[in-house]
Amino acid sequence: MVEYEHTPVSLDGKRAVVVGGTSGIGQAIALGFAHEGADVIATSRDEEKVDETAAEIEAIGANTARVTCDVTDADSLDEVRETAVDAFGGIDVVVASQGAISRASVLEIDDDEWDFVTSVALDGVRAVTQAFAPAMNEDGSIVNISSLAARLSMANLPAYSAAKGGVEAFTRASAKELAPEIRVNAIAPGFVITPQNAETYADGTEKRTRIDERTPLGRVAEREEIVGAAIYLASDASSYVTGEVVTVDGGFADSAF
Prior knowledge:
- 39% of the residues lie in helices and 16% in strands.
- The chain has 257 residues and is of the alpha/beta class.
- Strand 4 (136-145), helix 6 (158-178) and strand 5 form a beta-alpha-beta unit.
């Protein structure tokens, strides 16, 4: 018999920080990590949401800590890092899931809107990487959350699309520079129902109907369906994966023809 061994997809013993982890996809990832055996800090600017998500993580049986942060404030990211190191003894996984969006056309978007979106969605990824990478353990994993908007043309989302395109380029660049100690990858979700957009993607709306018709799997995703990709990239099962963007979109991006 041929000897066979592989690394399972497991987060047992991992210590994770999910920035933007108290709502939407980020919160689903934080709770998914906890279910899979990781200790998790889910952080955002909202103290109440931080407390609520921490309580859910504790109810699952994982360890956590309560700390807020703003990705536009380097000192607050440093505080999260130090809190995680004090609470867990180290950091193995960091997810950058903070988000900002502005719906305005290319010719109408103003400086304030552009700067708001890019400072959070793109500059925030750089800030998270710079704050946490030096403190991460070897064989660490950074997972950045991108979007199909980085790849597809979407009207009235110029700042968001540009920011997410930058996230993917930054992911590839930082993967090269941080290797071999730290792997850096990204996830590009397609259309995902979250509490923030549930009304927009509700059954029967024109937008939902168009998305369902174009998507080979015939539907939008629940946010929990993005979690599996994050768990894989955070786990040692992906030990030879870096600089990649994993698309989770039900086939939407490749269904134009």
